[in-house]
Amino acid sequence: MNEYWIIIDGVPRGPYAAHELRSMNLPELTPVWREGMTDWVYLRDLADLNESEVEEVVVELEEEGTVVPPPLPDSESQAYDEPRQFTDQKHEHAGKPELQPCDEPAPSYLGWSIASIVLCCVPLGIVSLIYSLKVNSYNNAGDFARARKCSRTAELWLITTITLGLVLSPLVMLIQMASALG
Amino acid sequence: MNRKAFVIVGIVAAVAVAMLYAFVDPLDARWLPKCMVYQLTGFKCPGCGTQRALHALFTGHPADAFRANAALVPGLLLCVALIVAEQFRDSVPGVYRALNSRTMIMALLVVIIAWTLFRNVFGW
């Protein structure tokens, strides 16, 4: 039987059994950890209770022989409120190559989103602004893999917006010139 | 394209655009593109008036720039700040974090939506 630790308001609690966690009605962004996991995950990503790919990652790491960190509740307790510390903690045990793409905060492209909203005349930039927000939340929670995913989506919307702006503007110019001549 | 080339192309493009709008008045020039959203829907987008505002700005009439699009100047300044902060993220992480904080992004979303509604209702 697995025992779980959770962080509520920056305070670690536990251990709990899976059925206890389920009956506690915790918010889905509660950090959870159990022995064998390399890091805290969100409750909603915990495959023991739900279905998710995060557990597969954990299993892979265990097969690779990653050193399992000791129960973290004490050291992580303040870290969860302080995004930067949480980030640093993450860096400490992110030496594995397969963690490389996810071990640093993802860019939020906030500046580009605003620029595209004001300059491109295509209101799609607002979508990438919303994804910037998601990147920011995941970065703060230390979930860089998800942050990166949202960051790519934001990037995609940005590219779409800017491309549309660049393609459509000359088109509008042509139409305007044609109608001015005719 | 590597980063240096990207920066150079960006600066050249920015200077070219500045020159264009310094010498051409979009109200006189029929060939400059009008806002597609406005043409299609009749509603103003948050960026409507950008060209007039740039022209006013580069010919030394900041008040006219504000009248054409109140969001342009603050928006552009913020963009510059954000892009600079991103370049110096490693050495000065505090500035980047403050500018990219959740509160900041939420506030921006609200401001942009409010600005769009306001200008369409009150005809800015």
Mean pLDDT of chain B: 88
Largest interface: A-B, 32 and 39 residues
Low-confidence stretches of chain A: 51-57, 64-70, 72-100
Quaternary state of the chains: heterodimer
Shape of chain A: rod-shaped
Helix content of chain A: 40-55%
Beta-strand portion of chain A reads: 5-15%
The end-to-end distance of chain B, rounded to whole angstroms, is 40 Å
Determine Rg of chain A (CA atoms, Å). 22 Å
- Give start-end ranges of low-pLDDT stretches of chain B: none
Order of helices and strands of chain A: EEHEEHHHHHH
**Strands of the largest sheet of chain A, in order across it?**
2-1-3-4
Q: Major sheet of chain A: size, sense and barrel closure?
A: 4 strands, antiparallel
Structural class of chain A: alpha+beta
Overview of this protein structure:
Chain A is α+β, with helices and mostly antiparallel strands and 182 residues long. Chain A has seven helices and four strands; from the N terminus they run E-E-H-E-E-H-H-H-H-H-H. Chain A has a four-stranded antiparallel beta sheet. In chain A, 34% of the residues are buried. Chain B has 124 residues and is mainly alpha-helical. In chain B, helix 1 packs across helix 3 and helix 3 packs antiparallel against helix 4. Chain B is globular and about 45 Å long. The N and C termini of chain B lie far apart (40 Å). The mean pLDDT of chain B is 88.
Topology summary:
The complex is a heterodimer of chains A (about 180) and B (about 120).
Chain A: E1 4-8, E2 11-16, H1 18-23, E3 31-34, E4 41-42, H2 54-63, H3 73-76, H4 83-92, H5 110-119, H6 125-140, H7 144-181
Antiparallel strand pairs in A: 1-2, 1-3, 3-4
Chain B: H1 3-23, H2 36-41, H3 50-58, H4 62-68, H5 72-87, H6 93-99, H7 102-122
Helix pairs in contact in B: 1-3, 3-4, 5-6
